[in-house]
Write a structure and sequence with these properties.
159 residues; alpha+beta; 52% helix; 4 helices; 5 strands
Length: 159
């Protein structure tokens, strides 16, 4: 018995044509969706000015914290264990930035909670006081873009 091997060449060319057309359609649809999504993203974020504002705020916070530390350290020089007194003087200096019950720099309310002896270290060999603080800066721009920036900083000052 002989098995006949008959192929229909017309059927092969039709299936290949359908495969090519469907592939081109899928690529075209993907490019359209990708292009429309990119237009939305570029329309929402217009520049780096928003991030610059957050980083300027971070620099301002660091400047004032360093200033408060220097003033507090002047009051605890020549002490064997300056940590408890340093925390009291730091809180005292920090409260000078409070007006009408709120801080001039709103992130200082986060600092007030973190001034504890476990966040303050003293190295008697190097004569250094360290202060570990964590900050979260939330900025809302034109009710369209919300930036939340969290960071930790270790402040080190010589006595």
């Amino acid at each position: 018995m002989r098995i006949l091997n008959i192929k229909n060449k017309k059927a092969d060319s039709v299936s290949i044509l359908i495969l090519v057309l469907l592939s081109l359609g899928l690529v075209g649809i993907t490019l359209l969706v990708f292009n429309s999504d990119m237009a939305k993203v570029s329309a929402e974020v217009k520049g780096s000015g928003y991030l610059n504002d957050v980083y300027l705020r971070e620099g301002k916070i660091d400047f004032y914290i360093n200033n408060i530390m220097e003033k507090s350290i002047l009051k605890v020089q020549n002490r064997e264990n300056p940590v408890p007194e340093f925390s009291d003087y730091f809180k005292e200096e920090l409260l000078k930035y409070k007006q009408n019950g709120t801080f001039v720099i709103e992130e200082f309310s986060q600092v007030e909670e973190q001034i504890k002896n476990e966040n303050i270290g003293f190295n008697s060999e190097k004569k250094e006081i360290t202060l570990n603080l964590n900050f979260k800066i939330d900025r809302n721009f034109e009710n369209q873009l919300m930036i939340s920036h969290s960071y930790g900083r270790k402040y080190i000052k010589k006595i």
